[in-house]
Amino acid sequence: xxxxxxxxxxxxxQNRLLDELKERIPGILQREPLSPEIIIDAVDKLRxxxxxxxxxxxxxxxxxxxxxxYKRQAETxxxxxxxxxxxxxxxxxxxxxxxxxxEGFSRIRVKKVPLGVIFHIAAGNMDFLPxxxxxxxxxxxxxxxxxxxxxxxxxxxxxxxxxxxxxPLLKDYIYVFDTPSTDIxxxxxxxxxxxxxxxxxxxxxxxxxxxxxxxxxxxIEWGQKLGFCYISDVDNAESADGQLEGLAEHIxxxxxxxxxxxxxxxxxxxxxxxxxxxxxxxxxxxxxAVEGNSPQDVGIRARDTLVAYTGRLKSYxxxxxxxxxxxxGKGMSLxxxxxxxxxxxxxxCNVLVKPLPRENISKVLYEDRNHLQTAGLICPSSERKExxxxxxxxxxxxxxxxxxxxxxxxGEAHDGDYALDRYVRIVxxxxxxx
Length: 434
Known about the structure:
Strand content: 15-25%
Distance between the termini: 56 Å
Strand order of the largest sheet: 2-1-7-6-5-8-9
Largest sheet: 7 strands, mixed
Helix content: 40-55%
Number of helices: 14
CATH superfamily of the largest domain: Aldehyde Dehydrogenase, Chain A, domain 1
Radius of gyration: 24 Å
CATH architecture of the largest domain: 3-Layer(aba) Sandwich
CATH topology of the largest domain: Aldehyde Dehydrogenase, Chain A, domain 1
């Protein structure tokens, strides 16, 4: 399914439409770019209709509690107030200005303008990601080409069609293709039309896209990241019952599928007996959270079970490193390992528990400096600033409480960058010589 000029076409028409798009782009670029207010108005209309239940039939594949959560988030995050704050925060002063005069030099006018054309390659691990990435590209004034992830079930196109229904002017700035990643020629053709490629995905996906990008095309990476929780005072961890419950709830609700999810629980010790003791104490919290977040839909439960079981089979076959020191529960496990390496867990509520004395934090995290994102922190308040500063210096870009590792905070950056700022360029124009 392809969305082009506000109309739906069959995927077989892709090559013809891409040829036509190449002819259309110069004419669109010659116009004044879209005002952010046009996009803000369309997104706010989407918010109103979502809260009114207009799209409930499109959300039937999601559990009821997930739909309720999305609606609560939409009420604030899709509002005009929040979107205007996002533009102000991420783009700063968008008004052009003239530099001060210096003897012997001309003054220049400085302004921010859209990059031009952005090719968005969305990953499938986050619901509504194609529409989210598109909205950011539009807010910065760009023409947008979107390649849908293979897991997309048509929901993204339906939501994007709503944007165009609310604001028909948007049809010239939105082109959506369900091109498979195996169609290298088609993706290369899309890459050849753009000024920048916004890629969401794994290291492997980013490497593949680097090979597609023509020279001079800006590559905007939103790559694979890792999150962990650090517990500094393990001997008194039981006194932090609420935080441990929050960590367990976070693991159970995200299934560790997000970049911000907790993959490893680090304990500030080099004593493996203390690590095992903590895992034993944490096990009831995680078991309770998993049972409380078991999906009601039979198909979702079956999928989750198969994913976890496949991971276990791979470990038995030697395809994945495994620890014999495991505390298993129903639908969850705590995998105890003596090394301190930050790595991806088996996910689906199967968490790694490792020692990491604080004097070794920088040495361990340096090895994964390009994959660091979120640290959940359980510690006495007197230690929080010291540990936060260490994590930040090591490359972490988010430090939160354990229950909020995957929470969104209005005004926050993504992986250490503001998206809108990456989707514009700064131009300098010499003032007329008098």
